[in-house]
Amino acid sequence: MFSNLQSDAFLRKREHMVQSQLRARGIRDERVLNAMMRVPRHEFVGYESQAEAYEDHPLPIGCNQTISQPYIVALMLEYLQISPADTVLEIGTGTGYQAALLGELASQVYTIERYIALANSASDILRRLGYDNVTVLSGDGNLGFLQRAPFDQIIVAAAAQNLPPALFAQLREGGRMIVPVGNEFSQELQLVRKKSGQEIVTTLESCRFVPLVSGAPSGEGENSGR
């Protein structure tokens, strides 16, 4: 009985999130809105944060990382214009919430996380929730995943100083990439399209993300994940 009441409470919060934070603020892509309605965001945060899971702000997930606010996630997904047959690369898995949304929208998702503890947690949660079309990898997101390139879309959930050249190289012709660009004090969300091999960049709005870090996978904070 308690479990059912808890599930009903989370469902009501998710409905409120979609209506008041997303649709009311201009998100129009029904596939994105439906995905946000289906994916249980509370499953991707720690127990201590579950009461806030559907509020419109980031939440800590361990390893000095955060899960992004629902609105900015929905905005990024809407701009990517993902089709059901697409293959998507995500940089910065966190605990897997955005990867689950991508799994709802695309045919195949590859997601890279630098922190091993987060990658393991995300893989466990995604498997438990049935997202068999999402593959979680530990690695340096700046390098992308050449083995499965090119990708129809690439989404970067951490701020790069500049557009990572390896990621742009792995974007198919006509594909779209969305990436926060800037430093810890000033960032802008950029939509990058590939046309005749060239970058077509559109600046969307100011944003605030954790930095995109280069280097080998890190075991830092292995006990502080979810």
Please characterize this protein's 3D structure:
The longest helix is centred in the N-terminal third of the chain and has 21 residues. β3, α4 and β4 form a beta-alpha-beta unit. With 226 residues, the chain is an alpha/beta fold. α2 packs across α4. The N terminus and C terminus are likely disordered. It has a seven-stranded mixed β-sheet with strand order 5-4-3-6-7-8-9. It has a domain of 152 residues: 3-Layer(aba) Sandwich (Rossmann fold). Helices cover 30% and strands 27% of the residues. It has six helices and nine strands. It is globular and about 50 Å long.
What does the secondary structure layout of this molecule look like, with pairings?
Elements (H helix, E strand, L loop, with lengths): L1 H21 L7 H9 L20 E4 L2 E3 L2 H11 L6 E5 L5 H9 L2 E6 L2 H13 L5 E5 L12 E6 L8 H5 L1 E12 L4 E9 L2 E10 L19
Parallel strand pairs: 3-4, 3-6, 4-5, 6-7
Antiparallel strand pairs: 1-2, 7-8, 8-9
Helix pairs in contact: 2-4
Write a brief caption for the model.
This protein is of the alpha/beta class and 226 residues long.
